[in-house]
Amino acid sequence: MPEHKIGTREEWQAAREELAKLEAEHAQxxxxxxxxxxxxxxxxxxxxxxxxxEDGKRTLVELFDGRSQLLAYNIMYGPDYEIGACPGCSxxxxxxxxxxxxxxxxxxxxxxxxxxxxxxxxAYRERMGWEFPYVSTYDSDFPFDFGLALTEEQALEIPxxxxxxxxxxxxxxxxxxxxxxxxxxxxxEAPTWIAFARENDTVYHTYTVQAPDPFVAPLYFMLxxxxxxxxxxxxxxxxxxxxxx
Length: 245
Prior knowledge:
Elements: H1 9-38, E1 43-44, E2 50-53, E3 56-59, H2 60-63, E4 69-74, H3 87-94, H4 100-104, E5 108-114, H5 118-128, E6 134-136, H6 142-145, H7 152-156, H8 159-166, H9 170-179, H10 183-186, E7 192-199, E8 202-210, H11 220-224
Parallel strand pairs: 4-5, 5-6
Antiparallel strand pairs: 1-8, 2-3, 4-7, 7-8
């Protein structure tokens, strides 16, 4: 028997109207959230950071590529990952290329960061077929200064991280195998969206959001939320060239 209710068209319409009220409330609340987000103070970035890119060394202001806004996603791909980036982060990366041209024409440069060396990022980007700029924060204070990564000591000071390292669920053990790193190293990377603004040569940090916020998830998750069947609770993911079926 199906695990969902079977009803008449009239019952569906009544239930849909109730849901529409909740969706309208959610939309209104989201407008308030967007306003609050825009009202966040801008913090000047006074430290000089240099990044490795496929085109050589670049400063933070140079990553803007002439635009005034920079939006970046930090893909979990640390120096200790011997196989590849986090599959879930890779799924998110798969959905970014389609928006590049539209963001660029709206004065936004979109890039991704990872702590692995640039040579490994270049190879992984080619494997995944990504077009967005992929920038290495290897051997830089940047990821630690902005909360994109944790030191070993910091990781063990977080009870939730310490518990996952000491008593990992099955899906996390599999994730560790997928990236080729021990959990004590793999969980030091933080899946994060971070935004900056530029006025002349001054860069400002404007926004950061990390998992488990829904924004820090593959873009197709938004589509799955509108499909009829509930998705599994365990956050298992596969790279697009490694699905078991």
